[in-house]
Design a protein that fits this description.
The protein is α/β, with parallel strands linked by helices. The chain folds into two domains: 195 residues, 2-enoyl-CoA Hydratase, Chain A, domain 1 (Alpha-Beta Complex), CATH 3.90.226; 48 residues, Lyase 2-enoyl-coa Hydratase, Chain  A, domain 2 (Orthogonal Bundle), CATH 1.10.12. It is built from eleven helices and ten strands. It has a six-stranded mixed β-sheet, with helices on both faces. A four-stranded mixed β-sheet has the order 4-6-8-9. The longest helix is centred in the first third of the chain and has 19 residues. It is globular and about 60 Å long. The two termini are 25 Å apart.
């Protein structure tokens, strides 16, 4: 396992947890954090035992309070673009991963923090969580995908309100508009993530990965092409041992023993 300086990577059976560990800086994303997050995602992708990954922030104040302004303040355009591309590469790696990623938002998820959460498959939030894209208050715009992923998740008008206004919303409002998928008391957040992870891990891993891929790719396709993509993926799974085991187990009225084959 790599020697990370700004994050912690822990494994517990099928579940891995990545914790951004810059509590004094409210877990702000600088180049090192982004690089280490990307490395951790790549490391986990090679670990067949890991099925679900929870991403969270150290402490109880912030998931990620944003990109690190101290690093950005003296950037010129030639430096700003690769910084944005680094965040973009991380988001792409999470979205295209065969693993399921859950953002456990335990506090502020602002700017790059909200964007990191948006890359994940689910967003589970503490009742104390706060979300926002306040970049316009700094004279810039979101750079890690916020202007594109947020409208795809909550709709164009609501995304414009959040991005152009630069304000914050609480966890219940995030749930209401579809930004958060579940809101729980702070002390129940990790248990809630574990519960959905248990549910996912009981399913066929190849099917879960394929479903995630088809949903993601289909969003940018015309409906008829997306349905054709689904039909091909559905048929291709019929060659797998997991498909045979899952259907036989159902007929035998017993739990399936999936092996990812």
């Amino acid at each position: 396992m790599s020697d990370y300086q700004t994050i912690r990577l822990e494994r517990d059976g099928y579940l891995a947890t990545i914790t951004i560990s810059r509590e004094k800086q409210l877990n702000a994303l600088n180049s090192q954090v982004l690089s280490e997050l990307h490395a951790a995602v790549a490391e986990l992708e090679l670990d067949a035992a890991v099925r679900v990954v929870v991403v969270t922030g150290a402490g109880d104040k912030a998931f990620v309070a944003g990109a690190d302004i101290a690093e950005m303040v003296d950037m010129d355009p030639a430096q700003a673009r690769p910084f944005a591309e680094l965040g973009g590469a991380l988001g792409h790696a999470i979205e295209t991963s065969a693993k399921v990623y859950i953002a456990a938002v335990n506090g502020f998820a602002l700017g790059g923090g909200c964007e990191l959460a948006l890359c994940c498959d689910f967003i589970y939030a503490s009742s104390k969580a706060r979300f926002g894209q306040p970049e316009v208050k700094l004279g810039v715009i979101p750079g890690f995908g916020g202007t594109q992923r947020l409208p795809r998740r909550v709709g164009v008008a609501k995304a414009k309100e959040l991005v152009l206004g630069g304000g914050m919303i609480d966890a219940q409002e995030a749930l209401r508009i579809g930004l958060a998928d579940k809101v729980v008391p702070p002390e129940e957040l990790m248990a809630a993530c574990r519960a959905i992870a248990d549910q996912i891990a009981a399913n066929g891993p190849l099917a879960v990965a394929e479903a995630k891929k088809v949903i993601h790719q289909g969003q940018s396709m015309a409906l008829e092409h997306a349905i054709a993509l689904e039909q091909r993926a559905f048929a291709e799974l019929f060659i797998t041992a997991d498909r045979a085991e899952g259907m036989r187990a159902f007929l035998d009225k017993r739990p399936a023993n999936f092996e990812g084959k």
